[in-house]
Amino acid sequence: MESIRAVQRDPDIHELIVVDNGNAQADRPRLLEVASRTENVRILQGHGNVGFARGCNYGAAMASGHYLLFLNPDAVLEVGAARQMADAGDRAQSPWITGGLLLNSSGEEQRGARRGALTIGSALNSFTALHRLPGLQSIHRENLPLPSGPVPMPTISGASLMMDRASFDAVGGFDPAYFLHVEDIALCRAVRRKGGSVTFVPGARAMHYGSTSDIPRWRVECHKLKGLLRYFWTAGPGLGVKVATILVAPLMAGALFARTLWLGVRKGIRGR
To answer: In angstroms, how far is CA 109 from the centroid of its own chain?
Structure first.
């Protein structure tokens, strides 16, 4: 509800579509109450949990505006952020996509809002300690100085992103074959392949709680692995990308499994 209230405070946002993607039954009366009290809020229900990408497409099909802002339910948007993303998009090469700055609850930049291009090499560097070696780099950019204004960025986060309707239609929206994770990266790649622009807008801030789902961590990582492998499998024509994907699959699975174990151990240590 905090995310919904933040959107309602922004005078630049004229329509809010809440996609009920398999929410708990106990949460639905509150959503319906919000919709009944506010003219510009609509709830899309009855389809179950169809995944993030398909849910976003459902919401976009229902929307009537020129700009489409996709926002995670655990992201609290600052007033004016939507306008900054729209303004940056209007100055960009079409099709365009813009993404804002994600902050954690203590005000520090969160991982994922600005990233390099995803490749098999950059993925392995990022999910292991290889990025600490000289000459190698992680896909993540949150440790770099924050730019003073909008800048081109190969990849932004789906937790807070905007496109105009024409750009969304030009790339066919989100790829519904992605269920959870990597769909935002694939959308950025689709925009770049069309000759468009992906822009990171540091002034468009949102506080992102993250990891609020009750889904077990190992299931989340399984969806991430499936998304990564689909992304690499569709990286280009020819047999080479398919062979490379098959070869890297065990390495990616091992890296993600080790990461899941480490996060579990670290959570247990902090909880003591």
So the answer is: 15
* Type of residue numbered 230: R
Report which DSSP code applies to 67: E
* Whether the Cβ atoms of residue 153 and residue 199 lie closer than 8 Å to each other: yes
Closest CA to 217 of 182, 268, 259: 259
Task: State pTM to two decimals.
Answer: 0.89
Q: Which of 185, 191, 173 is nearest to 57 (CA)?
A: 173
Model pLDDT for residues 188-237, shown as the tens digit of each residue: 999 999 999 999 999 999 999 876 555 677 788 899 999 999 999 999 88
Nearest alpha-carbon partner for 103 in 133, 83, 82, 78: 78
CATH architecture of 2-214: Alpha-Beta Complex (3.90)
Are 119 and 189 in contact by the 8 Å Cβ rule? The answer is no
Which stretches does DSSP call E strand in 45-183?
67-71, 75-77, 96-103, 114-115, 151-152, 155-156, 160-164
Picking from 69, 50, 67, the residue whose alpha carbon sits closest to that of residue 156 is: 69
Q: Strand 197-208 relative to strand 96-103: parallel, antiparallel, unpaired?
A: parallel
